[in-house]
Amino acid sequence: MPDATTRFFEELDRQGYEPLLAKISGALRFDLHEGPQTTHWLVRIDRGEIRVSQEDMEADTVVGTSPELFDDLVTGRENGLSALLRGDMTVTGDARLVVQVERIFPGPPHAQGPHRYRKGVR
Amino acid sequence: MAPSHTVRILDGNTFVVCEATGDIEATPTEPTGLFSLDTRFLSKWVLTVNGERLNALSYDDLQYFESRFFLVPGLATHYVDAKLSIIRERAVGGSFRESITILNHDEKAVDLEIRMDAACDFADLFEVKDEILNKKGEIYSEVEPDRLRLGYRRGNFKRETVISSSVPPRYDRNGFGYTVHLEPNEQWDTAIDVQTLAVGPGGRDLRMGLRVHGTERLALQHDLEDWIAKAPKVNSEHGQVAATYRKCIVDLAALRFSPLSLGGQTLPAAGLPWFMTMFGRDSILTCLQTLPFTPELSATTLRILAALQGTRFDDFREEDPGRILHEMRYGESAAFEEQPHSPYYGAVDSTPLFVVLLDEYEQWSGDGALVKELEQECRRAFTWIDDYADLIGSGYIWYERRNTDTGLENQCWKDSWDSISYRDGTLPPFPRATCEVQGYAYDAKVRGARLAREFWGDPAFADQLEREAAALKERFNRDWWVADGGYYALALDPEGRQCDVLSSNIGHLMWSGIVDDDRAEQIAHHLVGPRLFTGWGVRTLAEGEVRYNPIGYHNGAVWPFDTSFCAWGLRRYGFADEAAVIANGILDAARYFDGRLPEAFGGYPREQTKFPVEYPTACSPQAWSTGAPLLLLRTMLGLEPHDGHLAVEPRLPVGMGRIEVLDIPGRWGRVDAFARGRLDLHQLGD
Q1: Which of B263, B343, B459, B559 is buried deepest, with most CB atoms within 10 A?
Q2: What CATH code is carried by the domain that includes residue B21?
Q3: Dihedral of alpha carbons B386, B554, B256, B153, sign
């Protein structure tokens, strides 16, 4: 049973194109640190076209987190920008890429969205 | 907020608020300090000589990023005998730098103990007006051989203030000191550097690689000179108009703000000191006001807001797909989700205004490439307007906050809790819909149709938007018209009942174009009539309404920005004389504030107070107050882009004399506009 992070990246690779990233190009590497072990996910974006691999290669932006936090980010339980401000997620290189990629993370799992109003039902 | 004797200097969102001596001793009522990233980095910064506090002879704000203080030891009652002068010169730009010069005027040598007490509470900007008692993290102070490090740590969240000095002092955990011997007429100098660090676990600063301009004093100076040189020149017989304009251009330079992680592009922040961050609404409205003068702000504002457009549902941040953000913050409360500003989306007007700005910007600049670049963002904005914002399914934009702890109750520009009421003064239930936002939605659709037809190659979408706009206008004129008052209701409640008070919002409706032609004259009369117009500007809520109060923030005070959009609206419907009347009022008021209009001033009648009474806690300079004189100049000169040219059709009051605006940038290159005051305001009043 793959973890949420693996499912997220596999799904992203399968999706191949993400309209929300249509304006950006660059390579982003996620380094998930757990003790001495680091798992790498490399996301190459070419104007919305996406390829994901697990290579440890040079990237324009390198993002560092714990695997637990990243699992929470890709399932919407944690918010990327707050994690960044908190220092729980670190960025080196072009920070614009991570701010844009963060937008494809899902919202909180229990978010209700706009409250539709119906007369007599509150 | 900050009393008027405080001094403020800034660069981006790093700024200093201090006493007239240059000292900082923060309290909840006088929240002074060195701030950066929405965090206080110095809450105590007190200079003493031989244990004595200093007294200010004078201070100068040299530029927005530097100031100078002339001080003497001792209290005001005996400083005339002082044999010492102390000069503090300081600048912000990346870090905070202060140079101290001490001059001995005595015929004898003196021995001095010079000391700076330094401390920091690392308050979040949202805490500075409270007693700060229960910080969740740990505050520390570390003495190193060549620096003093003040810090705050909460998990991986770390903020540090690092102080060093060119003349090595003795550091201790509460500050640093120097022992100085000065011969007669001798002088002593030191340069102190205060770095504000937001360090991540890797030791890298959050802001690394983010600078638009250099942060050295000279680079800041050059950047400001370039900015002024690029802006059009205004000359006027009525010398105050030109002076106000120049002040506004410099203040706009000061208010430029470069959001983290967006590559150093700048947009106007909302205001100093507490709003040095991006606000969707404030940034967009300021861009609309300043388009003829500083069009580059619009392109970056649109790009930045597009890059952070909502993509998902998040009830805490009130994010929806397609929604344009309301407010971004970088402090501890945003980081730990004690406040929702990461970013917060609780505004219903910034999304339609985003489309309005894009169209207006293209009409001025001819930058069709940006219109193409932002097509998908505009389409998502329309989806938000039609679907997620229409909580009732009645074809209007409604709001009801989902974040009931820290979200905003009123998600329109009048965002205080009591700003929306019925005529009997009671507050309506939620969801609410305010009138000006429906006007913005109408305008966005009309303008979006033009963009779809001319740039997106989608005439079917253009037709659809036009049909929707026409239907909205018809519906709006049916549902919101207050027949017994001859104006539009401020808001509707969920049952469709009108909040039937007379408010300045009707001016925004004129600007949007949603007002039926045969009703425009009634609206124009209200805007210059005695219930709304004070002689200085337009009251947010009309005199005679139950909640009217001349110093009610959104219930009677005059907001210069608000009045400037009323003037634009009047001009749009052909009421050029009425527009000139209220433009003249605001520009007269600006003289009393040395050209720097506050956020708001009292709604007292002009003849009663003779001068505009500043609203007690107004924030200044504030971006959209700074933009107001610029929009009023545009309005009075009748500057309109028209078929690729700039049309000029001035209507100025006689007292304005001659005004010229030189080098107005746009798709026409640069052109000049000339005008002469020919309009007799007294005749108009009759």
Answers
A1: B559
A2: 2.70.98.40
A3: negative
| Shortest alpha-carbon distance between residue B433 and chain A (Å) | 13
| Average pLDDT of every residue of chain B | 92
Residue B204 covered by a domain: no
Find the domain containing B494 and state its range: 231-685
**Is the CB of residue B264 less than 8 Å away from at least one CB of chain A?**
no
* Nearest C-alpha in B relative to A81: B342
Q: pLDDT tens digit string along B178-190?
A: 999 999 999 999 9
Q: Does B397 touch chain A (CB under 8 A)?
A: no
Asked which of B173, B198, B223 is the last residue of a domain, the reply is B198
Domain boundaries, chain A: 4-104
Q: What is the pLDDT of residue B273?
A: 66
Q: Does B343 touch chain A (CB under 8 A)?
A: yes
Q: How many CA atoms lie within 13 A of B368 on its CB side?
A: 9
Q: What is the mean pLDDT of residues B278-293?
A: 96
Inter-chain residue contact B335 with A85, CB threshold 8 Å:
yes
- Site from A60, A75, A85, A96 to mutate, B interface, most B CB atoms within 10 angstroms: A85
Is the separation of the CB atoms in B565 and B284 below 8 Å? no
- The single-letter DSSP state of residue A21 is G
Burial of B150 (C-beta count, 10 Å sphere; 0-12/13-18/19+): buried
Q: Which residue has the higher pLDDT, B29 or B535?
A: B535
* Fold exhibited by the domain A4-104: Nonspecific Lipid-transfer Protein; Chain A (3.30.1050)
B157/A112 touch (CB, cutoff 8 Å), yes or no? no
Place of tokens 């679907």: B387
Interface test with B, best of A25, A75, A86 (most B CBs within 10 A): A86
Question: For residue A21, which residues of chain B lie inside 8 Å, CB to CB?
Answer: none
Tell me the C-alpha distance between A102 and B342, whole Å: 12
Residue B680 binned pLDDT confidence (cut-offs 50, 70, 90): confident
Burial label for B473, CB within 10 Å (0-12, 13-18, 19+), is buried
Tokens of residue B387, six digits: 């679907």
Give mean pLDDT, residues B293-298: 94
A100 vs B307: CB contact, 8 Å cut-off? yes
Residues whose CB falls within 8 Å of the CB of residue B79, separated by 6 or more in sequence, listed in order: B55, B57, B72, B73
Has this prediction a pTM greater than 0.90?
yes
Q: Does the structure show a pLDDT above 80 at B682?
A: no
For A21, the closest chain B residue by CA position comes to B307
Residues of chain B above pLDDT 90, percent:
78
Residue B234's DSSP bridge partners are B661
- B320: contact with A, CB 8 A cutoff: yes
pLDDT-wise least confident of B94-98, B132-136, B261-265 = B261-265
Distance CA B100, CA B77 (A): 24
With 0-12 CB in 10 A as exposed, 13-18 as middle and 19+ as buried, what is B206? buried
**Tell me, what CATH number does B664's domain have?**
1.50.10.10
A81, A92, A117 member nearest B391 (Cβ):
A117
Q: Give CA angle at B255 (B237, B660), nearest 5°.
A: 20
| A86/B342 CB distance under 8 A | no
Q: What ipTM does this complex have?
A: 0.96
In a domain, B212, yes or no: no
Residue partners of B415: CB distance under 8 A and separation at least 6: B408, B409, B554
DSSP code string of B480-500: SEETTTTEE-SEE-TTS-EE-
Query: Directed axis angle between helix A4-15 and helix A67-74, to 10°?
Result: 50
Amino acid, res. B419:
S
Beta strand A25-34 with A61-65 is parallel
Q: For chain B, how far is it from start to end, CA to CA, in angstroms?
A: 41
